Amino acid sequence: MIKNLLRVLISGLMLTTQLFLASKTAAENQKEAGYIRARADMVENQLIARGIKDKRVLRAMRKVERHKFLPPQLRVLAYTDRPLPIGCGQTISQPYIVALMTQLLELDGHEKILEIGTGSGYQAAILAEICSHVYTIEILESLTSDARDLLKELGYTNISVKCGDGFLGWEEYAPYDAIIVTCAPTEVPQPLLEQLKEGAKLVIPVGEYYQELKLIEKIDGQIRIKNVIPVRFVPMLRR
Questions:
Q1: Which of 93, 120, 132, 145 is catalytic?
Q2: What is the SS3 assignment for 177?
């Protein structure tokens, strides 16, 4: 009698557990489907509608899961057209700016790129979907560690993350086919110009209170600068 009762109880417990796990899996699948739809809407309505045409960039923006680069409580806002806080007084750039800056580099898929300002790693992931290798520098140790762990967890083997002063670049692997800066210095860092390969592009926001996104090209050893649009980035921190 007792054995039969135990069997019934155990059987009921197993069924309850199975139903709970099935319900949890269904909820997670539903949430993931929602993220996929939101990401597709983001590409269509925020990027293509505003002039982003590069197929490699659009493919990367569709694929990389921006919500995973945000604190859990902010993931519901992941695919809105706005920058969002990631801790330590830093932000993840709005999707349009990420796509625009990437498009300005005119990547063909074989580049070695330097990124200044890793943040949570989102821009590095976008670049890694397109180019050969990304070298990215973050000055804040906690963000460096978190981004490195997340990018590894997501399977990126073509991203090298370093904690350091981005103003100085990463001379060890220079020159670079392209450089992208996701924080704003008050002037264009000379070390970055020196680490830029001949014929390569540098995209960087420059300014303090008023910032301008600049596209810089090194042609025949000369630096050519073009202003793109006004922007607002967190300031570049120095050691």
A1: 93
A2: strand
Burial of 175 (0-12, 13-18, 19+ CB in 10 A): middle
**Intra-chain end-to-end CA distance of the chain, in Å:** 74
Q: Which tens digits make up the pLDDT trace of 175-218?
A: 999 999 999 999 999 999 999 999 999 999 999 989 999 999 99
Two tokens, residue 77? 């806002």
pLDDT at 11: 67
Q: What is the pTM of this model?
A: 0.87
- The topology under which CATH files domain 53-231 is Rossmann fold (3.40.50)
Task: List the one residue out of 231, 114, 211 whose CA is nearest residue 170.
Answer: 114
93 is catalytic: yes
Q: Which amino acid appears at position 4 of this protein? A: N
What is the distance between the alpha carbons of residues 146 and 78, in angstroms, rounded to a whole number?
18
3-class SS of residue 3: helix
Contact in structure between 159 and 144 (CB atoms under 8 Å): no
